[in-house]
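Late entry, written up from scratch paper. The run itself happened at the end of the previous shift, but nothing got recorded in the book at the time, so transcribing now.
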Amino acid sequence: SFIDALFTSTSAVCVTGLVVVDTGTYFTIFGQSIILFLIQVGGLGILTFASYFSYFFKGGSTYENQLTLSEMTNSQKIGDVFKTLKNIIVITVTVELTAALFIFFSLDKGLVNTFADKVFFSAFHAISAYCNAGFSILSNSIFETGFRFNYTLQLIIIATFVLGGLGFPIVVNIISYTKHKVLHFLNFKSKSKNHKPWMLNINSRITLVTTISLTVVAFVFFLIFEYSNTLAEHSLYGKLVNALFGAATPRTAGFNSVDMTALAFPTVMITFLLMWIGASPASTGGGIKTSTFAIATLNILSLAKGKPRIEIFRREIADISVRRAFATIALSLIVIGFGVILITIFDPEKGLLNIAFESFSAYSTVGLSLGITASLSTASKL
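Output as recorded:
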C-alpha cells in the first residue's frame, strides 16, 4: 500500500529502521537497492549537514564561528568546506567498504547462496550499520537462524555502527590523534618529542567518555539480566558478545541479536534510556545525543556540589550549552509524549509499554521494536 511504501522510504532516509513489512522477503532486489540508496543518502546527509552546515549558517563568519567550525570539522579555515565534505565521503566509503569486506568473509558457507547475493548482503549490512539504520534483509535481523551464533559478524557490525555513531569530527579527531602518537613513537629521537603532544579536544573527550561509560554500564546490566534468559543458548563467549551487542545497538543502531519480545522488564527499561540518549553529535545516529546527556548530568552534579559553574577537563561549559541541552531534553519528551498519547488513542489494544517503546525508537531513529509496528493502524503509522 502507499502508506507502507511511504513508511518504509521515510524510515530508510531518516535511518530509523522500523519496518511495516519484512525487507528481505517483501521487496525485490530493486526495492532493497532503493532502500539502501535512501539509507546512504540519509546517513551522509545527516553527517554532512550536522557537522558543517549547522555551524556555517549559525550567523555570519565571525571569529568565534570560525573557531567553532574549525574545531568541529577539524578544518583550518572556513574555505575548507569542500575538503571537509570530501573527507566525510572518503571516511564513510572507506569504513563501509572495509566492513563489507569483513562481513563477506565472516559469512558461513551455505547460508548465502550465490557470490552476487553474498556481495549484496555484505554491502547492505555494512551501509545499514555505518548509517545506524538498522535495516536488515534477514527476517529476524541478526537473530536469524544461522546468524545468531556468528559472533565474528556481530563484532564487525558493532564496530561499524559505533564508528558511525561517534560522529565525523570525533572520528577525524581520533585519526589525527592516533597518527600523531604513531609518528611521535616512530620519531622518538627527533625534536618533536620536545613539543606538547596533540590532544583530543574537549568535545571528543566528553563524547568518548560518555559513550564508553554508557556502553560498559549497559553491558554489565544486560549480561546480568539476560544471562539465563535470552542469552541462555549461548556459550560464555557468545553471552559476552551478545551482551555487548545488546548494550551498543539501542543507541540508534537498531539491529538485534536476541528475541526483543523475550527481554526481561529491567532490560527493556535500560533500552528505553539508551534509545533516548542516542548517538553523538554530527553522527549518523539520532536521540538527544551523548553530549546533551553529559551536560545535563554534569549540571546535576555541579548543583549537588553547590558550584555556580559546570567544569569538565579544566574547562567551563557555557550557559548557552546548558540551556540548549535542557531545551533538547524537554522538546524530545514532549514529542515522544504526544506520539505515545496519539497511538494509544488510535491503537489502545497494543499496550502502553509496546507503544512507548516504538515511540522512543522512532524519535531516536533506533529501529528496535517489540513487534507492533507492522500491525499499527494507518493513523498510528503516520
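The chain has a mean pLDDT of 86.
(Scratch paper discarded after transcription.)
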